[in-house]
Description:
By secondary structure, the protein is mainly β. Helix content is 13%, strand content 38%. The chain has helices at 16-19, 71-79, 92-97, 108-111, 173-176, and strands at residues 23-24, 26-31, 37-42, 45-49, 54-60, 81-85, 116-118, 125-127, 132-143, 149-161, 166-167, 170-171, 178-183, 186-190.
Amino acid sequence: MFYRPEDGHGLPHNPFNAIIAPRPIGWISTRGSDGHDNLAPYSFFNGAAYDPPQVMFSTTGAKPDRLRGKDTLGNIEQTGVFCVNVVEEEGINEMNASSAAFPARTDEFAAARVTKAACKEIACSRVALAPAALECRMTQVVKLKGTDNFVVFGEVVGVHLRDDCLSDGKFDIARFGLVARLGYRDYTIVRDYFELARPND
């Protein structure tokens, strides 16, 4: 089949959500200027550059108690920092619980029963037991076409790695079961992978 998005797809569910998959989940923690912590998962997330290391994530939609965007975006624009926490298999239920539409000023760490720890380079909390966490300073926020669509870019200024997730000097995503989004309500867990060298390597 072929369809133009502006005309609609005619299917029960939007296929675009499943075409770009799997997508890593950025479990984003922030702190508002009032000191309240926030934690929410974003599946439009990825790395953006190696040197200096940079990441990006998109936030779509809005909340009635925010002037624009969601709590995560509002907090980042207030403080200029955020932390990206990696989601493991054992954290699936907590990650999902933190995605609920809580009122502003709600601490999702407490609501989802997630243990927090302090970041080292930025004034923000992180998921204490996450396999990895990236402390970031926001570099820019880009408004995308459409209502309440924004991309946040950040430079990674600190990296936390859980020791048991390292194997032979590598960060082993199969060791802890990296969780990724497939689209719709579908997820996957990375349990296996293979190595493939480039022609010029």
